[in-house]
DNA sequence: GTCTATAAGAGGATAGAC
DNA sequence: GTCTATCCTCTTATAGAC
């Protein structure tokens, strides 16, 4: 992840504690605003208001709206991929995938804004993360497809295409964050109940894991 | 779908053939632009340019950007739900679901803009279709959950929650349209090949249908 | 560091000629 | 019906006082 000039340049810019706190507050607020409004829909005013700062003061910390957006995205991507990277080729296939799906569902439930931010970026043509997708992510996915293919070869999984399995997991898990409005509208009372997330996890795991068990 | 004043008011506004053609051209162009740029990101200029019209001329046909957006969405929703409504309670469960999933994947492949437009609308809080989701769609989904539950009761499907099965189908099928950029970036050469859509359909059907078969 | 004021520009919408 | 010109609002970004 390209983080050319953040807190590294200690020599030229020793950021104070308040400065770091302010930057973080801005990025947190920006995540929410960008997630629900998209890049164009978001305004610096809205982000500033959410942090209690004035608009020019916010631009004292980040030189442009674009820059805030990029940094929020970068920050988010790292967390986002961690559980995917953690899939262990040596582990039990079904158990590894169960762990991965569970982790992603938990992220969708606890930080839906992160998922929405990412969805927005891709939906609009991935102007910022496009090259990241074509390099880092592509390599990572290629690696994991090999792992899955190996599992299939050993007879530990049904013969499914690794790419589509991965896409399916991404789709289902992120859907609960990205389309939460629709889910709440449609499932109504059900979606409000406390155990709903767990119920979702149960259902997704049941279907996918049953679907890929060798028979 | 609320279509209070479209081509119904024949008495006050008998639209000519060219008028209808122009309106349609505008709505087609608008679908593309709104889908890739979102409501805020889209400009009347961009839509006008795509139709070869001038901005004011476009506003002769529709009185505001908002109005164009609403009509594009309404128009899209009808097509979007047709295959869902068509799920037949009397049919064979697995066969009905196979037909539905296949139809949705085909729509994602042939008209990804429609899916993206809808995704955008939901992602941003469903400002226009919110009430539609809470009424018409909710009722429709409730009806279909009963059908699925009935199938489960008869032992024709594994005991899965109907809501989550429906969400899963929506998620996976629409993912191929909404995230096509990511899919192409990650799957690279694979995604370019002619049989890719069919391969995707095969994989999705295999996993979901295996996942819900009674055992 | 944080504010008020304002420049600069994009984009939605209208007026009015043709 | 379609165009050119224009108005006006919203938003990004900067200048400069405190």
From TrEMBL, chains A, B:
GO terms for biological process: negative regulation of DNA-templated transcription. PROSITE patterns: HTH_TETR_2 (PS50977). Residues 20-80 form the HTH tetR-type domain. It comes from the Bacteria. Keywords: DNA-binding. GO terms for molecular function: DNA binding. InterPro entries: Homeodomain-like_sf (IPR009057), HTH-type_TetR-like_transc_reg (IPR050109), HTH_TetR (IPR001647), Tet_transcr_reg_TetR-rel_C_sf (IPR036271), Tscrpt_reg_YcdC_C (IPR013573). Residues 43-62 bind DNA. Pfam families: TetR_C_3 (PF08362), TetR_N (PF00440). This is TetR family transcriptional regulator. It comes from Oricola cellulosilytica. The lineage of its organism: Bacteria, Pseudomonadati, Pseudomonadota, Alphaproteobacteria, Hyphomicrobiales.
């Amino acid at each position: 992840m390209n983080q050319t000039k953040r807190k590294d340049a200690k020599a030229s810019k020793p950021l104070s504690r308040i400065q770091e706190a302010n930057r973080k507050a801005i990025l947190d607020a920006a995540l929410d605003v960008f997630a629900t409004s998209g890049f164009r829909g978001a305004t610096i005013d809205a982000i500033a208001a959410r942090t209690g700062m004035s608009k020019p003061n916010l631009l004292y910390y980040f030189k442009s709206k674009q820059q805030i957006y990029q940094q929020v995205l970068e920050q988010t991507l790292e967390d986002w991929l961690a559980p995917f990277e953690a899939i262990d080729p040596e582990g039990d296939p079904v158990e590894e995938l169960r762990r991965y799906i569970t982790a992603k569902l938990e992220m969708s439930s606890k930080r839906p804004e992160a998922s929405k931010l990412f969805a927005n970026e891709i939906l609009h043509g991935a102007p910022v993360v496009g090259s990241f997708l074509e390099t880092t992510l592509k390599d990572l996915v290629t690696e994991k497809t090999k792992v899955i293919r190996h599992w299939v070869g050993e007879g530990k999984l049904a013969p499914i295409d690794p790419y589509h399995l991965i896409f399916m997991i991404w789709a289902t898990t992120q859907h609960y964050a990205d389309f939460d409005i629709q889910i709440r509208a449609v499932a109504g009372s059900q979606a409000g109940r406390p155990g709903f997330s767990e119920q979702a996890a149960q259902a997704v795991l049941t279907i996918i894991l049953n679907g890929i068990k060798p028979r």
